[in-house]
Amino acid sequence: MTETQYRQQLNLILGDLADELDVPPSKYEEAKEHYDAVGTWLGEDDSELASYGPVIYPQGSFALGTAVKPIGDDDYDVDAVCSLQLDEDQVSQPLLKKMVGDRLKHPHSRYRNMLDPADGGRRCWTIKYADASKFHLDVLPAIPDEYAWLIALGVPEQLAKYTICITDRNTWDTDIDWPKSNPKGYAAWFKNQMLVRLEEGRRTVAMQKKVEVQQVPDYEVRTPLQRVVQLLKRHRDLRYNGDDDKPVSIIITTLAAQAYNNEADIVDALLNVVPGMRDAIEERDGILWVPNPVNPEENFADKWAETPRKQEIFFEWLAVVEQEHRNLLTSRGFEKVGTYLTEAYGYRDASAAMTKYASRASQPEAESNLRAGSIIQAASTPLARFDVPHREPLRWPEQPRYDVTISATASRKDKSSFQFNSDSVPLPEHWDLKFTATTTAPEPFDVYWQVVNTGEEAASHGARGLRGIIFPGTNLNRDEKTEYTGFHWIECFLVKDGVCVARSGEFVVNIE
Questions:
Q1: Do both 321 and 414 map to the same domain?
Q2: Residue 2 in 3-state DSSP?
Q3: Which of 8, 137, 356, 437 has a beta carbon 3.0–4.6 Å from 127's, enabling a disulfide?
Q4: Per-residue pLDDT at 342
Q5: For residue 75, what are the domain limits?
């Protein structure tokens, strides 16, 4: 295949993967119903807040269209701002926080028993819905801010005018009167960075639905920039799951948007955005900066100086992403696309994306349009190579609700050791291997492992050499050895109440 053909096929696969990660429009509608209902309650005629004209609107990933499905059984995290028409001379931070909280705790409020915690968090009031929607809503009390200072810093008025003063318990006893924020201005800036593709997408949806363009909400459209941010966030989540120092979403989103140039597809966007993210980081007086585009005096990366490990992990992660996406456009890299996606984005979503892609590719029109390079083979090979007769099929019904990933270390008797990735450089025989599974699943659960060997050397030892049986493990660690040359793999399964709730996907070990 030519590089152009790789790009065409990879773009379809990544599009299918992004669809798997994406929050469906129904969830955006449900989120809007939730925060609109809160706004209605806060502003009802008999509310103590009614005279201050409370306005509620989304912020964060739901406002940007970059939200991804939660990993495992986690809730959808929706952020909203509740702005009251007051100024700094009329109210203090603690009083504003209390005013909103008192209304939410009103005896007739449906939210009074849904607040988590009951006394509110550092900045927000969190409403945890007990129904099956799996939502929790963070409501941030705020008041409008004078914005002339932002215009003086060069921020356009159409962005600066949305700036707000917010509550933050950590500043109540400091010299900071009111922390500043501008989520609506940031959302407008982000939208402008992809405006060409956003409007193009809205026109396409309008034609499909036979409605006017203005009737198409933004959340029904996904631009390549939004897809890239979703992919990068999930890649980050799986690689650094549970690590408090992992790269934060606002930095990933800002750098990606800075580097985006309205590319028309996901592959072109990734190939331009990922290396461009590094270039968008500034240095000021020896300190690295990721400036807030709607407040140049705010550094989104200010925690890097306080906690150097945050900076180290960010650049470690970025280097991995850069290398992986370069490799995918080589013939050898594309042959392993299924394995790569499983490692980077989780078995559940990668498997669903590859299956969907292979199914579509098998249609006659797809085969004729992209016959060169065998699109069907490219889609199915990464998964088909694991289809061997001695591999025991999964014996439980599968309901993937959590993620489990495997890391591995190779060592030998002289104590030399190193970590290695799935399907990486071949290992020599007679080394010790230690596999460690990490999961988002809460205990209790039962752990099972499966080791599958292939190749003539393993086959010469019969079933003992080939293996393939799913067997119980005592914990999330598994010790093995490199005994037979060839292509082999190990997989971890987590079982609750007779159901497989997580599986790692195949961690490939090559032995020479």
A1: no
A2: coil
A3: 137
A4: 77
A5: 24-193
